[in-house]
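Fold sample X.
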Amino acid sequence: MKSALHGKSASAVEIANVSSHGFWLMLGRRELFLSFDLFPWFRQASIGELCNVERPRPGHLWWPDLDIDLAEESIEDPERFPLVSHSPPNKRMQPARHKRTRSIARRSARG
């Protein structure tokens, strides 16, 4: 008799839906919502990275592509688990700074 390979999930974990606000995770018959506001590490993840989730042991989830480990209780009750780490700023969402605009404004002020 062979035992299961290490690292393989014994319980089903599935991403049910993804929206601009977060995603729904199915753990057996339970459905949990992970808001991007409360779990910012997932905001820039691709669908493939989100879907590659494992449950190495009961109560623990792991996204190997993202190197994210979460306890299920931190999803169920995030207020008890304040953020310790912050995601880096998204440079694509920040407005571009144009030096040319500044020089035009200086010329206009000179008359």
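Fold sample Y, listed below.
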Amino acid sequence: MHLASLVTLVAETEGKVNLTTRSRILAAVAAIFFFVLVLELIRRRKLQERYTVIWFILALGMLAGGIFPQLLETLASILGVRDTNVALFALLLLLLLALAFESTVTNSRQGEQITRLAQENALLRVRLAEEQGQQVTATDEKA
């Protein structure tokens, strides 16, 4: 085989997704397992319902990618990259960044709520102690 024909062959197959039937079945089974896992976490009250939409969309994307690997080619062309692996990696990276950002916002909001609740609790302890005619000290507030 000549070098020119080898280059042509590589150029023709570049960017195409060639998943075997076994790989597609494995991807579909992993997505279905992920669906079941999310449902089980909801049932056990380990995952709040408001977060399930994100995880169901991710599982649906996994299932769609396993069943229709051509979607990866479409994603690659939308992102303007030749290799579908790069497109998939970029999509996963963006997803992880979005999840990290959402978690940071939630943690910040909860930190503010905890601070406000601790302040309100301290004020209520002082009022209660004043009503009962007791002296409040710094060690009482820590208890």
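Sample Y note: Residues 2-11 have pLDDT under 50 and may be disordered.
Also: The first helix runs from residue 3 to 13.
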